[in-house]
Amino acid sequence: MSEKLIVKLGERSYPIYLENSYDDFTHGFSGLGSLSSRAVIITDTNVYEHQYPDFETALKNHSFKAEVFVVEAGEESKNLQNLQRIYKFFMENELDRTSVVIALGGGVVGDLAGYAAATYLRGISFVQVPTTLLSQADSSVGGKVGVDFEGAKNLIGAFYQPKFVYINVNSLRTLPSRELRSGLAETLKHGLIKDPDFLTYINDNMDKLFNYDEEVLKNIAYSNCSIKASVVEQDEKEDDIRATLNLGHTIGHALESVSNFALSHGECVSLGITGAFKLARKLGMISGDYEAAVAGILKNAGLPVSISGMDAEVVYQQMYLDKKVRRGRLNFILPTAPGQVVRREVSDRELVMEILHELFQNQKQAV
Ligand code: GLY
């Protein structure tokens, strides 16, 4: 194993391995005690085509046997129907409490497989093998698992930590560039909430990143995971500081649902971050220069800072269906300075609508 980080959560602590192949994956199980040889891999149609052959070879080289369940690629797969199919597959394969579920894929696969593992037999072990930048940066670490319901994202779910996370940075090589950019939004978010130097590093190394420079990919994965881990260690169940990871997500999740997932998660987060910075500037919390600099970095990453064809009223209503709504008020994570954010309840409808109209009508800035 080349490099590892530990997410420190007492008896639920686990390592994150940062690798450049799948070769050492099975070593992750050493020291985990009495896991049986029964294992199920959950993956999606894209990952099955592009990553599974290498992963399977690594498993075979270590005589590790596993059954595979493949879902359609895409957010639409994160639903209760697929969950039911997965439970049936677990029954057919006689999984028991010593079995393990391996999530090989992006956030959809990790969330779905993780929730299946969290609920089957009141919880069986699972491991995350994230294959997208989005999941390597964010969703595979921290134990949020779940499915979408009635158009609302992640409405049904749990906090359920994996036994380990295994990141092969070279899995990003088969990722469409739109997906790489999508993951960049969460990566930039980490810089914005906690580490201005990391933000600068990403902005300065954008070309190398898009050329899959292994050192840059590993540095980015390391910073992403250490920032995410440090936040989760302080507040596993999102009572407080973990909510800062939701920068850009109040507007972002609503856009994702209203666009029926035609916009990627990262595109929506980018628009949501832009909205949060506009809001913070209008509330006098940051300067116009800081807002403009961040918009410039998002654009440099090929991410949108405005979009046409959205109905502000529909998006506003959708924002109220989010888990982040408390006491009927919208919650925003807003910047106060480079690397610093705060949570604010905002009840000024006119102000929020003004922001949405700016995001949706300012065609000149559209990317
Ligand atoms: N994706 C935000 C979190 O894990 O809390």
Can you describe what's shown?
It is a single chain. With 367 residues, the chain is of the alpha/beta class. The protein folds into two domains: 3-175, 3-Layer(aba) Sandwich (Rossmann fold); 177-367, Dehydroquinate synthase-like - alpha domain (Dehydroquinate synthase-like, alpha domain, Up-down Bundle). The chain has 14 helices and eleven strands. The chain has helices at 45-50, 52-61, 80-92, 107-119, 133-139, 177-194, 196-204, 206-210, 214-234, 249-258, 265-282, 288-300, 312-319, 349-361, and strands at 3-7, 14-19, 39-44, 67-71, 100-105, 125-130, 144-149, 152-159, 165-168, 330-337, 340-346. The strands form four sheets. It has a four-stranded parallel beta sheet with strand order 4-3-5-6. A three-stranded mixed beta sheet has the order 1-2-9, covered by helices on one side. It has a two-stranded antiparallel ribbon with strand order 7-8. Strand 10 and strand 11 (340-346) form a beta hairpin. The longest helix has 21 residues, at 214-234. It is globular, with a radius of gyration of 20 Å. The N and C termini lie far apart (41 Å). Residues 363-367 have low confidence and may be disordered.
Topology:
Blueprint: E1 3-7, E2 14-19, E3 39-44, H1 45-50, H2 52-61, E4 67-71, H3 80-92, E5 100-105, H4 107-119, E6 125-130, H5 133-139, E7 144-149, E8 152-159, E9 165-168, H6 177-194, H7 196-204, H8 206-210, H9 214-234, H10 249-258, H11 265-282, H12 288-300, H13 312-319, E10 330-337, E11 340-346, H14 349-361
Parallel strand pairs: 2-9, 3-4, 3-5, 5-6
Antiparallel strand pairs: 1-2, 7-8, 10-11
Helix pairs in contact: 3-4, 5-6, 5-9, 6-7, 6-11, 10-11, 10-13, 11-12, 11-14, 13-14
